[in-house]
């Protein structure tokens, strides 16, 4: 019984120390809009080629995007050039899948990392704000000839009134604002 158990574990021993994805690392931010490099360690018993996939099983629907086919295992790295159509977020992994019909399945899997810059659509945010303020006050202009004018307000006048309006406007692709300040001066 012990001999059969030891013999059944023998095929597993051949895979100890086999392919191991070393980059991207756990929690790393990967920008898919530019190139990034996937690296791995290998041993002589590993298959000569594999297919490279970007996957995310933490979202629905799951992501399984084939990045490269028949990658040479002995190279130890593969540079991925700008992927698109992938939603930004966490939970992504790199899978190295066997190309052999006799040894199918995942040969190695990276730890989870975050993807950014992968969305194929652009989101534009805009905001608009209008601020309005008005104030009325009196000011003293002109002259008085023999007439005594007094008022309980803060000033007195025999003269003129004016209206001043100031308006400023600024805008950019992400926000805009408009401010209007109206000041009215009138004589009493």
UniProtKB/TrEMBL annotation:
It comes from Aspergillus luchuensis (strain CBS 106.47). It comes from the Eukaryota. Residues 118-188 have a biased composition (Low complexity). Residues 23-115 form the Yeast cell wall synthesis Kre9/Knh1-like N-terminal domain. This is Yeast cell wall synthesis Kre9/Knh1-like N-terminal domain-containing protein. The keyword Signal applies. Keywords: Signal. InterPro entries: GPI-anchor_Adhesion_Reg, Kre9/Knh1-like_N. The keyword Signal applies. Residues 113-188 are annotated as: Disordered. It holds the Pfam family Kre9_KNH.
